[in-house]
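Teaching assistant's notes for section 4

Start the section by putting this record on the projector. Ask students to predict, before seeing the second block, whether Fe2OG dioxygenase domain-containing protein will look compact or extended. Collect guesses on the board.
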Amino acid sequence: AAGLVSAFQSLNHRVLSCRYSTGRGNPRLIYSPVKEEDEWDHPPIIRYHNFLSDKEIETLKRLSRTKVCLRDCVGLGNCYFITDPVVSRISQRIADVTGLDMETAEILQVTNYSIGGHFKPHFDTQMTDVEFGGATVFPNIGVALQPQKGSAVFWYNLLRNGQLDERTLHAACPVVAGSKWVANKWIREQGQEFRRPCALSEWV
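Reveal the predicted structure now:
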């Protein structure tokens, strides 16, 4: 399966770029820009390198271990919802790089996949490197993103006209070796009316 994904991805290769971003002039990022890399262009899928520090990652993992697993995450993985001052700082950082309002966003969700853990296809930050497996795949566009400790990946699930962008259907491949920790921040469209205005055309 991994070979098929790699072959499919190579057929759809794009000439993409990376840069230092200040989040459109955000004061908190002017003197400390983030490393931003285009993983795909249509739809835009962006990876932010070194988004979480090792200390923040260990804090999130420690907090997760003190929580009761609330539900199985559409597959084989344990989910935890975390509230803590470190989460508030991470949420502010997400707001800085995306330009979106976090007031209507959901609580940070931390998920742990052990060997065999996976996430079935669904519409939705990497906290670990994985020895083998665990890629996030977008089957409708042939993209596979390997886990990279400390990085964050961002995309819009909705088009500007409010319709679901089916190109962003994605899933987490099974972990073959090692363990995978992921933190998800679901940002609602409500409250973003002035930050990401709607448009009549679905392709805008």
